[in-house]
Amino acid sequence: MFDKILIANRGEIACRIIDSCRRLGVATVAVYSDADRAARHVAMADQAVHVGGPAPADSYLRGDAIIAAARATGAQAIHPGYGFLSENPDFVDAVGTAGLVFIGPSASAIRAMGLKDAAKALMEEAGVPVVPGYHGADQGDAHLAAQADLIGYPVLIKAVAGGGGKGMRRVDDPAHFAESLASARSEAQGAFGNPAVLIEKYILQPRHIEMQIFGDGTRAVHLYERDCSLQRRHQKVIEEAPAPGMTPQMRTAMGDAATRAAEAIGYSGAGTVEFIVDAADGLRPDGFWFMEMNTRLQVEHPVTEAITGIDLVEWQLRVASGESLPARQQDLTITGHAFEARLYAEDVPAGFLPATGRLSHLRFPDNARIETGVRAGDAISPWYDPMIAKVVTHGPTRATALRALEQALVDTEVAGSVTNLDFLIALTRHAGFRRGEVDTGLITRDLEALIGSAPSDDRALVLGVIGLAGLADPQVHGGMTLWHPLRRTIAWEGGTAILEVQGPGAATVTLDRPHQVRWQGGRWWVDGDLCRERIVIHPAGVSVFGGRVVHLMPLDPLARHAAADGGDGLTRSPMPGLVRSVHVTAGQAVVAGDRLAVLEAMKMEHSLTATRDGIVAEVLARPGDQVEAGAALIRLTDPADG
Ligand code: ADP
Ligand code: ADP
Ligand code: MG
Question: Which residue in 557, 538, 552, 560 sits closest to 465, CA to CA?
């Protein structure tokens, strides 16, 4: 085993790797950017080395600086986590050249799986079923269109260099093939510098089921499957293991295919083979097809750890340090069922826009495994993935594990940024999901119900008003009569209510309509219902957790003034992100709807368009700039002002 390793990552995954190292007595070296000086992973590691500026290209992607940090601190090996340098074969080569061990597969194994077309060809050769389609070299328009006809519509055009759901286009009708091909190619060129595509049969009711594999460079075992069908725009939201409805025959077939895939490329370490399954056909041993292989530890690996009792990071360290595979296939078993939910700083009703903010309050429950890279008081910065935590539960059955997930999410408290917590809770209560009827279209189909708010939701707001009024403090609320005046207007960012104190422990809070509030028996009651919600007062305001989550921020008169002054002609960034391109120059005339700039955030591109006619007075952002939510990007003046 190693004495000391460097972790070339940040956030929850860096912390999670440090946890295992501690248990194994391995010393740890963290690296950090300017934005992460006070980050949790830095505080947890035995040593930490600063590697550059906040942009990933200036720090976490600087292989040379990271290798230098490892050598300077005497680390023997580098763990890449996921994302960043984890699937970069040139980095793997450089680590080896520096006399260090890369905790992961060989550069050649990563290269073999790096492009989807070559990977599919390789898998076909190894006898692994691949999604029917065309993944050849001829990229001519007419040839691709003819291949699509042969495959049969609907088809899916995919960038061969794709990842993160980019460069994919579903085409339902041959008449739209040419235009979809052009747009997939240009997105692929922009994102990956490679316009090549492949074409697949579009599976109509797809389930995403992946196999966790682990190799020692020669042999591989599988650690069963994970179902990641609960996705939004091809990004995973809740994952589980084992897959609902999985049969022993299908599991054996998928496990054999996945270990064959790993052994075909001499795979070493943890990896994931992703398959697509047609849910319309049920789970049949001949009804799954290889999509791609991720040659790293996967975000959702904890569900596998929960059902197998294995620490995958420990296995990674053991195998990378020269030990043989820690277990044989017949030693492995599944115990119970596990779920993982990805808690993000994002504005769900606004279309899942990534958010930032300082976490003025953060509390996780004891009844779940929590993987996080932040603490109360830490910021979710615009520079990195806005994940706050992964909430993982395990139970003897799927139903108990799902109930445990629901409860753990209800017990989770985050304030200071909007989050997807309500959305995740709604998902755990979705009737189809509860029955195990999952497919990748579930979230889109039921989006309105999942993000809609029921009329009874006013209750959380009522409790928030009580908090804002200063009545939630246990020292105070029994004596509501002492409050003056008896009738007050309570205002917060985005709303007002009227509070009337009626007597000891009794008040009315009027929102759209009056609500009766009582403090009785040590609990709050709203409109006669006992409230299980928790009112939390924190530096940024008042939050109510345990039901619908609401945050009430005290009014800031200055902020309100700025918001009201919408006539400043400024186009602002609606979310933190990277300016991809700017399409106007100073002095240029634009009309409402013209594209001004393209912003990339959460692996997606968003066009920012002119909201009115005008002249571009100033261009305040350049391609490549990382901007915060609200940052001014373009200033327009009226044509008359020239
Ligand atoms: P997984 O199946 O493990 O979730 P993903 O492809 O969603 O795999 O990516 C895992 C992580 O890698 C993400 O959470 C993110 O941090 C990083 N990542 C992957 N692709 C991108 C990308 N295109 N841009 C930025 N980060 C990415
Ligand atoms: P990425 O590298 O972007 O993760 P994948 O090939 O893994 O790309 O596909 C991402 C997601 O797109 C899958 O999880 C699945 O939801 C969907 N998908 C991929 N291929 C197909 C297909 N042939 N038919 C239907 N859906 C698909
Ligand atoms: Mg994928």
Answer: 552
- What share of the chain in percent tops pLDDT 90? 76
DSSP per-residue letters across 462-517: HHHHHHHTT--SHHHHTTGGG-SSSEEEEEETTEEEEEEEEETTEEEEESSSEEEE
| 192 Cβ closer than 6 Å to some ligand 1 atom | no
136 closest CA partner among 111, 115, 153: 115
Average pLDDT over residues 199-211: 96
Ligand that comes closest to the CA of residue 166: 2
Helix axis angle, 107-114 relative to 89-97, nearest 10°?
170
| End residue of a domain, out of 185, 201, 217 | 201
Q: Is 603 in the pocket of ligand 1 (CB under 6 A)?
A: yes
* Residue among 624, 282, 209, 268 nearest 440 (CA): 209
Specify whether 360 is located in the same domain as 402. Answer: yes
Q: Is 163 in the pocket of ligand 1 (CB under 6 A)?
A: yes
| Per-residue pLDDT at 505 | 82
pLDDT-based confidence at 199, cuts 50/70/90?
A: very high
Mark out the alpha helices in 323-429 (DSSP H runs): 398-410, 421-428
Give the domain extent around 242: 206-451
Nearest CA to ligand 2 atom 21: 202
Nearest ligand to the CA atom of 276: 2
- Total domain count, the chain: 5
Write the CATH number for 160: 3.30.1490.20
**Is pLDDT larger for residue 225 or for residue 473?**
225
The answer on 245 and 341 residing in a single domain is yes
Burial class of residue 222 in the structure, from the number of CB atoms within 10 Å of its CB (0-12 exposed, 13-18 middle, 19+ buried): buried
Domain end: 489, 524, 555, which one?
Answer: 555
* Residues 268, 346 within the same domain: yes
Supply the residues annotated as catalytic: 296
Which among 151, 207, 291 is the best mutation to test ligand 2's pocket, defined by most ligand atoms within 8 Å of the CB? 291
Do residues 542 and 598 share a domain? Answer: no
* Ligand 1 closest atom vs CA 299: 3
- pLDDT tens sequence across 579-628: 988 999 999 998 877 788 888 876 566 778 777 788 999 999 999 998 88
The pTM for the full model equals: 0.85
Round to whole Å and give the CA distance between 21 and 387.
23
> Do 295 and 418 share a domain, yes or no?
yes
Better-predicted residue by pLDDT, 633 or 475: 633
Reported as a single tens digit per residue, the pLDDT across 508-542 is: 999 999 999 998 888 999 999 999 999 999 888 99
372 lies in some domain: yes
Read off the pLDDT band of 480 (50, 70, 90).
Answer: low
CA 291 to ligand 2: nearest atom:
6
Whether the CB of 403 sits within 6 Å of ligand 1: no
CATH number for the domain that contains residue 36: 3.40.50.20
As a whole number of angstroms, the distance between CA 211 and CA 251 comes to 9
Name the band, by pLDDT with cuts 50, 70 and 90, for residue 474. Answer: low
Q: How many CB atoms lie within 10 A of CB 45?
A: 23
Grade residue 475 by pLDDT with cuts at 50, 70 and 90: low
pLDDT of the residue at 453: 58
* In the predicted structure, residue 560 carries a pLDDT above the cut 50: no
